[in-house]
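FYI - complex with NAP, inputs then prediction.
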Amino acid sequence: MPDLATKPLHDKVALVTGGARRLGRASALALAQAGADVAITFRNSAREAQETVIDLSGFGVRAFALHCDVTDEASVRAMMRDAGRELGRIDILVNNAANYESVEFEKLTVHQWDAMFASNTRGPFLVTREALKWMRRKRAKGPMETKIINMGSLGGIKPWATHAHYCSSKAALHMLTKIMAKALAPQIAVNVIAPGMIDLGEKSAAAFMRRMAKQTPMGRNGRADEIAQAVLFFATAPQFITGQILVVDGGLGL
Ligand SMILES: NC(=O)c1ccc[n+]([C@@H]2O[C@H](COP(=O)([O-])OP(=O)(O)OC[C@H]3O[C@@H](n4cnc5c(N)ncnc54)[C@H](OP(=O)(O)O)[C@@H]3O)[C@@H](O)[C@H]2O)c1
C-alpha cells in the first residue's frame, strides 16, 4: 500500500467511469487522496456525482463530473472530448461502470443478454479506445507510462447459475484486459480487479451478505475501501505488471 502522505499520484490525471457512487466513488476518492486530479462519469446519478466532486476537491485536486452512457458510442466520444480538453491528458483510466442482474437461465432474454454485454464489455472497450489519444499524450516530464484498470468480478471466474449474462460479460472483460495489455504495451499497463462479495451496507441485502460472509474464508465480506486500495495498487504499480487479474474476495473463490 503506497504512503498516501507522499501523494504518489501527484501530477497524475485519472478518469473513473461510474464514479458517482459505491465502488467507483471509493476508487475516485482513493486516487484523489493519493494526489491525482480526477474526472468521474455518471449516467443517472447527477446529484451523487456533484457530491462526489465536492468530496474529491476536498483533497486539493482538480475534480469534475461528466455525463456518459458507456453503451452509446457518441456519448463516449463526447465525454472523452470534454475530459481530454479539461484534463489535458489521462494517466489512469478506471473502467468501473457496469450493471449487475440476477435472472434464471431459462428466463434470460436476448435484450437482457445484449444490454449486459453493452455496458460491461463493450463499454470498457469503447471508453478505452476513445481514451487512447489522451493516454498517449507526451508528458512535460516523467516517463510516458499510463494505466488502465478494469473492474471485473469473481463472477468472471466462477460460474454463477443465475447470472449467465453478467458472468459471461465479466469473463469477456477479463480476456479483453489481457488483449489490451498486449495491444497497448509498452506505454499502457492494463490490469483487472475481480471483487468478490463487497458489502456496501444495503439493508435489503443484509441476510444474503450474512450468508456469504459465512462461506468466505476471511469470515466477512469485503469493504469498498479494500477495492479502492486494489485500484491504488495498480495505479502505482510497476509498469511491468500488466495483463493480471487481481481477485479481491477474502478467499471466497478458493
Ligand atoms: N459491488 C460488488 O460487490 C461487486 C462485486 C464484483 C464486481 N463488482 C464490479 O465493480 C464495479 C463497481 O461496482 P458497484 O457495485 O459499485 O457498481 P454499480 O453500482 O452496479 O454500478 C456502478 C455505476 O455504473 C454506472 N453505469 C451503469 N450503466 C452505465 C452506462 N450504460 N453508462 C454509464 N454508466 C453506467 C452507474 O452510474 P449512475 O449511477 O450514474 O447511473 C453506476 O453508479 C462494477 O464494474 C461491478 O461489476 C462489484
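Residues 39 and 177 are 22 Å apart (CA to CA). The domain at 4-248 is CATH 3.40.50.720 (Rossmann fold).
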